[in-house]
């Protein structure tokens, strides 16, 4: 007997929406701003980060604006910072500074604390962000 089966639906990967980026999933600009504000508050107030603080300008307001916009683009979100700073990269930004391992460790620790304090969701992505940023900072330390 011949059984007529329905044709299976076409297999397609087409989708009308783009997959959410880490930036989107972590809460967008509000999360990046909260993390960076906490990071600079810690840097500004905890003597453990005095050496790192001393490398920065007296006025941290420009960094409070710049770092969250940098992180937004870095995490797959809007690339405004990169468009406003053509050709700027981690190397060129930090070339004027001598970053030893101690100060790289201060950056990494303050960022880990800032992310833990803000504790964005989902937690596994927040842990990934914390590890990626602290590994990046630690890789910049040279003695
Ligand atoms: C490893 C330890 C690090 C040290 C000691 C350090 C230090 C600095 C200093 C002193 C400045 C200039 C600040 C000012 O003018 O007040 C700066 C700028 C900047 N840093 Fe770092 N940094 C470190 C790691 C990082 C990491 C891991 C990132 C990114 C994930 C980063 C992103 C930036 C950006 C985007 C700017 C420029 C922001 C802007 O002008 O818009 N830094 N950094």
- Tertiary shape: globular
Question: Oligomeric form of this entry?
Answer: single chain
Going by CATH, the architecture would be: Orthogonal Bundle
Mean pLDDT: 92
Low-confidence segments: none
Structural class by SSE content: mainly alpha
Rounded Rg: 21 Å
Question: What's the helix and strand layout?
Answer:
Elements: H1 22-26, H2 28-45, H3 50-55, H4 61-74, H5 80-84, H6 90-94, H7 101-118, H8 123-139
Helix pairs in contact: 2-4, 2-7, 7-8
Bound molecules: protoporphyrin IX containing FE.
Provide structural commentary.
- The protein has 143 residues and is mainly α.
- It is 62% helix and 0% strand.
- The protein has helices spanning 22-26, 28-45, 50-55, 61-74, 80-84, 90-94, 101-118, 123-139.
- The longest helix is centred in the first third of the chain and has 18 residues, at 28-45.
- Bound molecules: protoporphyrin IX containing FE.
- Protoporphyrin IX containing FE binds at residues 52, 55-57, 63, 66-67, 70, 93-94, 97, 99, 103-104, 107, 133, 136-137, 140.
């Amino acid at each position: 007997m011949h059984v007529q089966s329905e044709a299976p639906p076409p297999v397609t990967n087409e989708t009308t929406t783009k997959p959410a980026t880490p930036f989107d999933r972590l809460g967008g600009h509000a999360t990046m701003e909260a993390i960076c504000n906490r990071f600079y508050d810690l840097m500004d107030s905890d003597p453990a980060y005095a050496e790192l603080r001393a490398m920065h300008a007296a006025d941290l307001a420009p960094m409070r604006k710049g770092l969250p916009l940098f992180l937004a683009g870095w995490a797959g979100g809007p690339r405004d910072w990169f468009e406003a700073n053509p050709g700027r990269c981690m190397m060129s930004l930090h070339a004027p500074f001598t970053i030893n391992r101690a100060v790289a460790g201060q950056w990494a620790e303050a960022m880990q604390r800032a992310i833990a304090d803000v504790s964005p969701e989902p937690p596994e992505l927040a842990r990934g962000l914390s590890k990626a940023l602290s590994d990046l900072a630690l890789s910049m330390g040279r003695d």
